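Narrative summary of target 7.
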Amino acid sequence: MRTDKISLEERIKIQGMLESGRSQADIAQEIQRSFTTICREIRRNSTTGLYDAHVANHMALQRLDSRERRGIGRLLSQEEKQEILRLRSEGRSKLFI
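Modeled conformation, tokenized:
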């Protein structure tokens, strides 16, 4: 199973398969994603009970942008890691770094 973010192309496939009456399990198997990933995608990104690929993509990008602005899930650069190690070696508390 893949672990990268769901693409717009995949969302379009999800929308088409939902409109043709395919089950979430069928969709997961078809686009090689876990059943849980598909269920979560549909639950998080459906509006008024309907799943629209373009709306879903917009909503997902907004959530990602919001997380990045708050610094959640952001990976540290090598320089940031080195600075943290330097501060810790000086005895600084993790709470104040």
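The beta strands are 46-47, 50-51.
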